[in-house]
Design goal:
Layout: H1 4-33, H2 60-81, H3 88-94, H4 98-130, H5 134-149, H6 152-160, E1 168-172, E2 178-183, H7 184-187, H8 190-215, H9 219-227, H10 232-262, H11 274-285, H12 288-317, H13 329-347
Antiparallel strand pairs: 1-2
Helix pairs in contact: 3-12, 4-5, 4-8, 4-10, 4-11, 5-8, 6-8, 8-10, 9-10, 10-12, 11-12
Length: 362
């Protein structure tokens, strides 16, 4: 029969053996989970170990597509530069002649006048269509419907021949005497016809652009302005329009570039714009391709300047919508050069990490 002291000793021995077994199992499991590895592949938590090297993902398809695009671009550029039919010497000689520059200035003036007048009339049409007056809504919708449904060339030819429909225009009392009359033939010359036709055509599209921008503003902005006691005119001018400009500017920029190129259609009315001036020159010299390249290069140059201006105007009106404005092209280019310099500096540093598989310095 065991004594109490023997029972106590055996219990202690059993507990000691159980604890030893459990601790041995835990140590064995921990050792199996994270073995200690010597050399370059040892665990990151081992003292003195280097962090694992991160290998960037390879984009083979992206590089193949980029190389293919560059090859096609090089082929097109080679065909343009080395093609003698373009006669680049003739292009350089006529690029800044007085006739071409005068046509360019008339094109720029016509574009500016049409855009300013078109958006002034278009804003009034948009406000009239959004008003609660059914008469203004109907008349505005009818104006937009007619001038958007008719081709621009048809409108220009119609206004150019307006004298056949209305020989004289008068100002006076409806169905009564006229105080001022003027002959239409003396009033509508080629340049004025181009301004009127282009302005009415662009105002119909500008009205929809402005209306879309106004509708993009949250209705709570108008309700808050009314709660503050602001009039509808002041709410539209100080609150709605500035916020709507963020939606209006991109489309208006596209319209501006489209109008610049669309002014070339007025050459059918013998308006001395850029294209008509170039046509007068090549009709005399029979150098069609070089003179068309002169007009093309001028259109590209002006469009590039307008695109840069559109970017900065959009960036200006995006100030209240995002914390960080998109970087300018110059800043983006500087950032890429800085990143490239940092990468080259890290690659050429004396303590740079060797590539995988390279022998380590002793």
């Amino acid at each position: 029969m065991a004594t109490p002291s023997d029972v106590t000793a055996s219990s202690a021995a059993g507990a000691s053996s159980d604890a030893g077994a459990s601790s041995g199992a835990g140590a064995s499991s921990e050792a199996g989970a994270s073995p200690v590895v010597s050399g370059p592949g040892r665990a990151p938590d081992t003292p003195g170990a280097e962090p694992p090297r991160i290998v960037p993902r390879r984009h083979a398809g992206r590089w193949v597509a980029a190389a293919s695009a560059l090859v096609v671009f090089a082929m097109v550029l080679n065909s343009v530069v080395r093609n003698d039919a373009f006669q680049w010497a003739v292009v350089g000689r006529y690029f800044t002649t007085a006739a071409v520059v005068d046509g360019l200035l008339l094109t720029l003036w016509l574009t500016a006048a049409v855009m300013v007048l078109g958006f002034l009339i278009g804003t009034l049409l948009a406000v009239a269509r959004l008003s609660a007056n059914p008469v203004l809504q109907t008349l505005s919708w009818g104006f937009i419907w007619i001038f958007r449904s008719t081709p621009l060339l048809v409108q220009l030819l119609f206004w150019f021949n307006i004298g056949a429909l209305y020989p004289t225009l008068g100002l006076g009392v409806p169905f009564g005497p006229e105080f001022v009359t003027v002959k239409t033939v003396n009033l509508f010359g080629p340049t004025l016809t181009a301004v009127v036709g282009l302005t009415l055509h662009e105002s119909a599209y500008a009205a929809e652009v402005v209306r879309g921008g106004i509708l993009s503003v949250d209705a709570g902005q108008t309700e808050a302005a009314q709660a503050l006691g602001l009039s509808r005119r002041r709410t539209l001018r100080r609150i709605v329009i500035p916020q709507a400009m963020r939606s209006i500017v991109p489309t208006a920029g596209n319209m501006l570039i489209g109008t610049l190129k669309g002014t070339s259609i007025v050459s059918v009315l013998a308006v001395h714009d850029l294209l008509y001036s170039v046509q007068l020159v090549y009709n005399r010299t029979y150098q069609v391709i070089p003179l068309l390249m002169v007009a093309t290069l001028w259109y590209i140059a002006v469009t590039t300047v307008l695109s840069v201006g559109q970017f900065y105007v959009e960036r200006h009106y995006a100030r209240g919508t995002s914390r960080d404005l998109p970087p300018t092209p110059v800043r983006r280019l500087r950032g890429r050069f800085a990143a490239l310099r940092a990468r080259l500096g890290a690659a050429t540093a004396p303590d740079a990490r060797p590539e995988a598989g390279a022998p380590r310095p002793s």
